[in-house]
Amino acid sequence: MTSAIPTVDTAGVTALLERGRTLATPVLRAAVNRLAPPMDTVAAYHFGWIDAEGRPAHGDQGKAVRPALALLSAEAAGAAAEIGIPGAVAVELVHNFSLLHDDLMDGDEQRRHRDTVWKLYGPAQAILVGDALFALANEVLLELGTVEAGRATRRLTTATRKLIDGQAQDISYEHRERVTVAECLEMEGNKTGALLACAVSIGAVLGGADDRTADILEAYGYHLGLAFQAVDDLLGIWGDPEATGKQTWSDLRQRKKSLPVVAALAAGGPASERLAELLAADAGLTDAQLADFDEEEFASRAALIEEAGGREWTSQEALRQHATAVEALGRVDMPEEVRAQLVALADFVVVRKR
């Protein structure tokens, strides 16, 4: 059964994302300014606040979905949005810690239409600054000195450990010929779902919510994260480089076992079998030989994935996870306006193009 693509309240979602960015950024900048040189400069470049020459910049600073969720989380618990700011900043610091390390591990040279940190400043700086951002995330929460801050930090550290588990799984899957759909969903639940789940519970915890409320909000965030990653997987193969800031066929170049690939391999049929043969043959090639693949080769593989049904299955999985996320919201008492805003953000996640 095909699920309907939701209609997005673009203006409302834009306002929510901008509110999250506006309230969180000054506190985020203050945290980054604590870093010793040159890490403060490297981090400022990564966040898009300066260019490679150190001049102020106003480039693409990301979607800011997680800060928006953290502020709404506080409001879902009946607190002011501002109560969620330390949580928003902490989650954003952890998210960017993961991006710095992932870019290095994946060999990605571009993020948001600019050179990645490891490409510009070297691998050592990418590792150091990533580590520093993770430490700052815990500092920002624990310096609040409240019981709620301790509860929030426990949720953040658990989510971070799951995120790292997911990255480890992702890397290991690149070297396996076959990965099941269940394994792929588990990996993506760790790598993306865990931190989004934390984002949408951490503000509520800081606002005094009980564990039941926080756990249900986490369920919304976890399934939203799976929807988010399913869309990311589609964009990783068929996304417009002008919108995504990454190379064409970027996930295919990295041999990622993303959902469209795994679903296509599990589907059976001629296209699925041909794709499996090509991927099995890759295992016998050197990195230099793999680097010689041209655009036509990747386009052909993308066509096989689509013919086998991997693209359509992943699109439907994004909508299934979206529906599960929205359903979870019905189990929490919260202001109806906040509920509507959380639904609108979920809608945005599954129709975005970047």
TrEMBL record:
GO molecular function, one term: geranylgeranyl diphosphate synthase activity
Gene3D superfamilies the UniProt entry points to: Farnesyl Diphosphate Synthase
InterPro entries the UniProt entry points to: Isoprenoid_synthase_dom_sf (IPR008949), Polyprenyl_synt (IPR000092), Polyprenyl_synt_CS (IPR033749)
Keywords, ordered alphabetically: Magnesium, Metal-binding, Transferase
The organism's place on the tree of life at top rank: Bacteria
GO biological process assignments: isoprenoid biosynthetic process
Enzyme class: transferase
Listed EC numbers: 2.5.1.1, 2.5.1.10, 2.5.1.29
UniProt xrefs under PROSITE patterns: POLYPRENYL_SYNTHASE_1
SUPFAM superfamilies in the record: Terpenoid synthases
Pfam families: polyprenyl_synt
Family: Belongs to the FPP/GGPP synthase family.
PANTHER family assigned: (2E,6E)-FARNESYL DIPHOSPHATE SYNTHASE (PTHR12001:SF71), GERANYLGERANYL PYROPHOSPHATE SYNTHASE (PTHR12001)
Protein name: Geranylgeranyl diphosphate synthase type I
